[in-house]
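Each letter names a residue; structure tokens follow underneath. Both lines appear below:
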Amino acid sequence: MNFTASQLIEFCSSLLQGAGVPKADADIVADVLVDTSLEGLDTHGISRLPIYLTRIQNGRINPKAEIKVYKTAPAVANIDGDNGLGQLVGVKAMDVAIELAKEAGVGSVAVKHSNHYGASSYFCKQASAAGMVGLAFTNTPSGIPPWGGKEAYFGTNPIAFGFPGKEQPVVVDMSSSIVARGNIILAAKQGKPIPEGWAIDKDGRPTTDAKAALDGAVLPMAGPKGYAMALAVEAMSGVLSGSAVGKEVGWIYDESTKPVDIGHFFIAMDVSKFMPMNEFLGRMDQMITEIKESPKAAGTDEIFIPGERRFNKAKIRQQEGVPVTDQLLAELNQLAQSVGVKPLG
């Protein structure tokens, strides 16, 4: 079934409120989740809500987090997420980075004691909307091995950039792994195989079995280069923030009751402190035009700018609605019943 973005935001917010999240916070988290689903990133959007709600209910995530901000220098702040929902912590942290950048030109924020925050692209778009270049880093539960190893140590550790643009922001969002672990989680839930080259099993052998891959490790993108990027993101978001590092990072899908203690790092840079915004937008537009007009390789119909396919998908889903699988709808409605919320559909 397909649902409008407004239907899903209202429903997701109601579910979160039913689980004890204050309305203002629930609205923020719901907006992040639905925006992600609108862009077609279904593994990181509303499909994650059932596990968040379950972990709130069993006490592993704090529904009423008191996020604390410690400004340590004109352009620097540390944030304690108080084990709150990652989307909420991320939005609040990027807000702080933006405010610091308005004063100092650049704002850098390290975050500890958070949770899975979904798609990094959301926070970069948040910065772009404020006239900023945005960067977002986060560590994640162990998923990929160091290059040459067979045992997972680093998370899939994404890094994202967002740049203001005339028509739409240019958003670069990529994980250090060959594929986001959410794709493997979704395949395991659906009983589907994964492509060759994505993962190894617990013995270090290539596998197309999604469940075996979750017991083993996802491979880094571009071999040693992906491993190096994962290490850099771990240092930024885990080591520098004072949050968990490597195998210490918890996995929300296991049955532990300990907080997962994920760390993030956000940077906002005020474009107007470097050059007039109109000049920047003009230069970005010129670069994009030159890229789009580049000679095309055989079989290529169009050259896309990073984030463009997501933007196009969001326009389609704004018109046609966001598809929700029967399985996910059943999960959400079961949770709705448990917290006294009117079911969806």
Summary: The radius of gyration is 20 Å. DSSP finds eleven helices and twelve strands in the chain. The first helix runs from residue 5 to 18.
